[in-house]
Amino acid sequence: MKLSLLRAKRLTALLFSLLLLGACSPYERPLTVGAAPWPNFELLFLAKELNYLPEEQYSLFELPSSTSVIQAFQTGKLDVAFLSLDEVLTLIALGIDLKVVSVIDQSTGGDALLVKPEIKNLESLKWRSIGYENKAAGALLLDEVFTLSGINNQTIQLFEVKQSEAKDVYMQGNIDGLIVREPEKQQLLQLGARELLNSNILQQRITHLIVVREEILRSKEPQITYLLKRFYEAYDYYQLHPRDALTTIAVRLQMYPYLLEESFKGTQFIQPEDALLRLSGSPSNIELQANQLSNFMTQKNMLGKIPDNFNSMISTRILESVIYE
């Protein structure tokens, strides 16, 4: 009886010690990852739907616009962000310490100028209005409009319209043309909009990247590597099971799978091996793009001063681990 009582006391003490140890263990918050709607960014959320990413280790956020992603990354609410190159340059100009760890894709038609159906050509936009988000993608396409049509900002009205507002603005009918990106582009085409030009004609390609806060990269490199591995596995799943993948993504985005499939056609996905090549070398392909784009953005008063050495913002370690380990 005494022996049983002694064992019970020891067991109780052991359980209490374990509970105390658990209570004293520091809480490690999940890696926070964010993106705005864009076809290949959706593979991140597909990875979550496929249970590739443990919820206790990864918190994924799809924000309404890339501006929201930039703000969340700037304030430290996001550890990892999926952004276009011009948006990354904006963060660098703000003094945010980050590393580019992968190249996701290029826009090959996913960004476009859409107009009311009665507008047949670019010249017909003279004395009319265009809405666009004041970022490099919109500015590059707007420059093409001016070059090809002969109109300029003196003969056309320009309005700031965020991507998340594009559909409502088009339906109100107060603006004649909108520069939009996928998947909003497909939604406007379904409403009868006419496409006059797209990003496929741009010499300066719109490129999308994965960036990580520098201090997070140092402290959570294995977790970030795992994230990218699962992201690329989700792409493989999409290639092997396109119907199922498109349906899964479409349900979350509340759009038809066939429209989502069309939106993917406006992008060129970049495999990890190719992404590594684009980030490697001195100067790297991405460094050359960044220098060219930063000059353009500076001329348009869209960018503050950034460091001359963009190469210091690149890390190839994650991709090397994804490919070779």
Provide the helix percentage. 40-55%
Q: Reading side by side through the largest sheet, how are the strands ordered?
A: 2-1-3-10-4-11
How is the biggest beta sheet arranged? 6 strands, mixed
CATH class designation of the largest domain: Alpha Beta
Give the SSE string. HEHEHEHEEEHEHEHEEHHHHEHHH
Describe the structure.
This protein has two domains: about 30-105 and about 205-325, D-Maltodextrin-Binding Protein, domain 2 (3-Layer(aba) Sandwich), CATH 3.40.190; about 110-200, Periplasmic binding protein-like II (D-Maltodextrin-Binding Protein, domain 2). By secondary structure, it is α/β, with parallel strands linked by helices. Helix 3 packs parallel to helix 4 (about 85-95) and helix 12 (about 270-280) runs antiparallel to helix 14 (about 315-325). The chain has a six-stranded mixed β-sheet with strand order 2-1-3-10-4-11, sandwiched between helices. It is built from 14 helices and eleven strands. It has helices spanning about 1-25, 40-50, 65-75, 85-95, 135-150, 165-170, 185-190, 215-220, 220-240, 240-255, 255-265, 270-280, 285-300, 315-325, and strands at about 30-35, 60, 80-85, 100-105, 110-115, 130, 155-160, 175-180, 195-200, 205-215, 265-270. The termini are far apart. Helix 5 links the parallel strand 6 (about 130) and strand 7.
Descriptors for this entry?
325 residues; alpha/beta; D-Maltodextrin-Binding Protein, domain 2; 6-stranded mixed β-sheet; 11 strands
